[in-house]
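Now for one record.
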Amino acid sequence: MSFSRFSKLQTLKIFLAIFWALFTSALAIWWYMFGIRQVAELRNLGGEFLAQAERSEKMLRYEGLALIGLLLAGSSWLIWLLHREYKHKKLLEEFFMTFTHELRTPLASLKLQSESLAIAFDNASSADLKKLLNRLIADTERLGLKLDNSLYLSTLAEAKLFAEKICLSEFFKFFGERWPSLKINLKGDAHCYIDNRVLESIFNNLFQNSLIHGKATEVFLDVAANDTKKLFQLNYSDNGAEFQGEPKGLGVLFARRGTTSGSAIGLYVVKKLIQKSGGQVEFVLRGGRLAANISLPVAA
């Protein structure tokens, strides 16, 4: 079943659930009011009916209100379950859409380079082989990053994070070894409280964006003071090409800036992971180049 058809069916289910909730609640309220009127009529008769009227009124007030409350609670629970089912289906649809969309190009590239590598062993120099192998390794890393992004995208709503105290200077000392083509310039230092895998995913995507789209050779990370003791600011920029477009659309899923731009999944994952970790991110232009102002939780 396509997502559009599922969405229409889910909307119909929610509408019917709301209608059922309103109808049954109205029916229960009408029954309650009718019972109260009957009790009032019995009380007006007086005599032997007075004691019966008091017992009936007590029963109506406790049992009637309990029935109405249970109907409203059950209806709300049903509507919430239907809404959660819709959100899960949407996340699953986005996952498979992302998976097929993002893996097609790197897989084709890996296949082509593998075939070229098999031929190159016979008639190429060692320098050509090294260049080809470096490209193969880079595309493999890119493929792994896209797989990570797809998995994060499918589980962002319910992913459990395990925050820990991380020193930025120590983190980038080892993390930078994964990006030999980028020089990392860290100004200042701080200890953040965040999931290590999340921090790796954030900067994998930012570095990938600078390298692929900006053709950068250096990235700059400046730790700045923040007004709140719970967060510190990390300003991110690079020496890449000037950004063509408006930064306000960045971080929006599948918002393409042009025919050569990506699907914005990486920056969307960056934004969502930072927000889920208790921080904030704003994509801005600095010197005509794309940059980011990142706020991360401070470790106690």
Observations:
- Residues 49-123 form the longest helix (75 residues).
- The mean pLDDT is 77.
